[in-house]
Amino acid sequence: MIFWRVKPLDQILENAERKSLKRQLGPVQLTLLGIGAIIGTGIFVLTAEAAQKAGPAMMVAFVIAAVVCALAALAYAELAAMVPVSGSAYTYTYAVLGEALAWTVGWALVLEYAVAAGAVAVGWSGYINGLMANAGFGLPAFLRTGPYDGGGFNLMACIISLVITALLVIGTSKSAWVNAFLVAIKIAALILFCIIAVPAANLDNFQPFTPTGWGTPMGGIGVLGAAASIFFAYVGFDAVSTASEETRNPNRNIPIGLIASLAVCTVFYMLVGYGAVGAAGAQPIYDAAGKLIEAGSPDLAAACVNSTQLVCSKEPLAHVLHSLGSPKVAYFVGAAASLALPSVILMMIYGQTRIFFVMSRDGLLPEAFSKVHPTFHTPHVITIITGIGVSLFAALFPVGILADISNSGTLFAFIMVAIGVMILRRTQPGRARPFRTPLVWVVCPLAVAGCLLLFVNLSQKALTVFFVWAAIGGVVYSLYGFGRSQLAKSNLAAAAAAKAGGSA
Q1: Residue 339, CB half-sphere, CA atoms under 13 Å: how many?
Q2: What is the pTM of this model?
């Protein structure tokens, strides 16, 4: 039964209501918060991935992904405002659709957070390896990329993942001014790129505009295939929606922050895409038989040996600037990515550990996962386990495959959130909603449809991993979480008490 073991919202909110946060964020602060969270590996690295899948039409893919993300964001914001507690979409689903689907969402969020952290680490390694090589300290090719990408073990991606994990274990966090500084660096790097690359664009480089077409389900190519990958470039907007408890007039300011941050980032991404395509060209690479080579595959890595094409670059924006004769700006862009992307890894590993922490507290994962370190006061056990997993993902797999796998979990979670919003509007219409999704019966169905459209256009590998991972999760839930759930135990205790009372 789909609504089996639903955790009441009042029970979830009981602890959250004991402490209230000061409402002090306005639309400008929310917009900047969203921009800082969104801009990351997607634009600095996945530009090359999108070019191999869609060619110059990757610019259209940026717009499609932004529209789907905006629809999902508006639905996400309503539940985030109603349930301002840890656990993300897992907690929301538990309150609306029940424990079984909540477990499935929480299990899928491993793909959104842990695998995404690995993708960002791989993206970071591409830029840091480029800087090291230019400085004369380049690593051997075997240690620069994983085995699926022409190397053997991505050493720098592994190292940064473990360093971030150590920081999270000891409780080191980013201060507000450091975060603002890193955001400023990222934005400055993109502005400089656009100033140099956009005027240098050659319209001939945009022909043919859609060399791979619109794509086919599970094909992972074409405009829709690129949009499914580029969706990764926008994930992070939930930083806006989860700040609803600290927002002045959230019904007005949350949608402004969401839409404005997505709009600003979309404009940036369009300009970057236009500059990259126009200045360096972005035609895909085909094999000898004229078949498109799969992005992130060993075949593409082999075809890219000694190639100067954009689709082959591990640091595409710096690559374009080098080709335009602007090495100093290229070094700045590389340095900006190297400085700013570790903060994204930190937030993703942090988010993953907190979801596992809540699932453990609910009894769905071993109790050890929610143990808190006596000195550092952090969930050190699950942080270490997560960090080791992320470091291995990053060391062995290319960024494109990791991003697609991550998107599969994210899109599934967003579908569940949009469905949950509609169910709650019917079942609990009178519940307080600090933010209400506008035109909910239009926005939420479109969000579900858009997420499904991108989901089915992910690569076959990504979808296979998703369903295999979901099946493993089903086994784990059946063998462990089903019988140890705290909600199940409380329900049994309540039933026993009622039976005893009836007998008396």
Answers
A1: 18
A2: 0.84
